[in-house]
Amino acid sequence: MSKSAKPVAAGVAEEIEECPRCGKPLPFCICDSIAPIDNRIELLILQHPQEQDRTLGTARLAAQQLTNATHKVGLSWPSLSKILGREVDPQQWAILYLGSAKVADLATDRDVVAIDRKGELEEHQRGILRDLEGVVLLDGTWSQAKALWWRNAWMLKCRRIILGPAKPSLYGKLRKEPRRDGLSTIEAAGMVLARLENRPEIETQLNATFQRMLTQYRDVQTTMPELAPKPKKRDYRRPENRRGKKYASS
Ligand SMILES: [Zn+2]
Predict the structure, then answer these.
(1) Rounded Cα distance, 204 and 72, in Å
(2) How far is the CA of 27 from the centre of ligand 1 (A)?
(3) Cα of 107 to ligand 1 centre, how many Å?
(4) Which of 20, 54, 65, 72 is the most buried (most CB within 10 A)?
(5) How many angstroms does the Cα of residue 35 sit away from the middle of ligand 1?
């Protein structure tokens, strides 16, 4: 999330009604176009409380479209079972790992890879990935995701997977890379679930949702620029001047 974009956007956007489903201010909402996806492998998205980019965030959208998904906002939880409200074996769950391991450095042609604690390729890739019941994604900036990692010791008990996406995120220049692998939460969810379930359409459909969200965002940038400022542009004018001018011209 860009700091420079925040002050103007937050002030104006908060006065606008938000969608109860996706949490976005209504001009950004694309809920009507979301068709549910029945995923077999469960998805758990843990969102850092300070990740409040309502307009460009994708965690809620992903959890909304996937029928077998949970979205929680918080900093720490005692265990995976406590979050899910039932007993689960963390070894049957994988977390998208944040360390320095890169798929490109490993001897594999997969793009979803299970690694061990040393960051090396797990020997039984196929078996580990096949037996997974669920996947945990951390939603937030790089440092927010890291904070979640350090505050939740149970994550060490989960399997670790990393992604090596062939293409960069659809975010393009709208946002700085939210994760080390450069993908948005919804793109990461699509990639992981599509590979684990061997259903490419999961990724296609989630990416299509993300694309519609970005198209909607760019439309709002044109029609209501005060709601969707360009992230890198910094306005050094005094707030009162800026505000006056904005309202006069709109
Ligand atoms: Zn909505």
Answers:
(1) 25
(2) 9
(3) 42
(4) 65
(5) 13
Q: Where are the domains of the chain?
A: 6-249
* pLDDT tens per residue, range 203-248: 999 999 999 999 999 999 999 888 876 655 444 444 444 443 333 3
E strands in 14-158:
42-47, 69-73, 93-96, 112-115, 134-139
Neighbours of ion ligand 1 (CB under 5 A): 19, 21-22, 29, 31
**C-alpha 186 – ligand 1 centre gap (Å):** 15
Q: Which residue has the tokens 């720490």?
A: 76
Distance 144 CA to ligand 1 centre (A): 25
pTM of the model: 0.84
Helices 200-223 and 185-197 cross at an angle (nearest 10°) of: 160
Residue found under tokens 């489903």: 21
Distance from the CA of 31 to the center of ligand 1, in angstroms?
4
Distance CA 103, CA 99 (A): 12
Question: 59-73 pLDDT, tens per residue?
Answer: 999 999 999 999 999
Helix%, strand%, coil% for the chain, nearest 5: 40, 15, 45
Residue 169 and residue 172: Cα distance in Å, rounded? 6
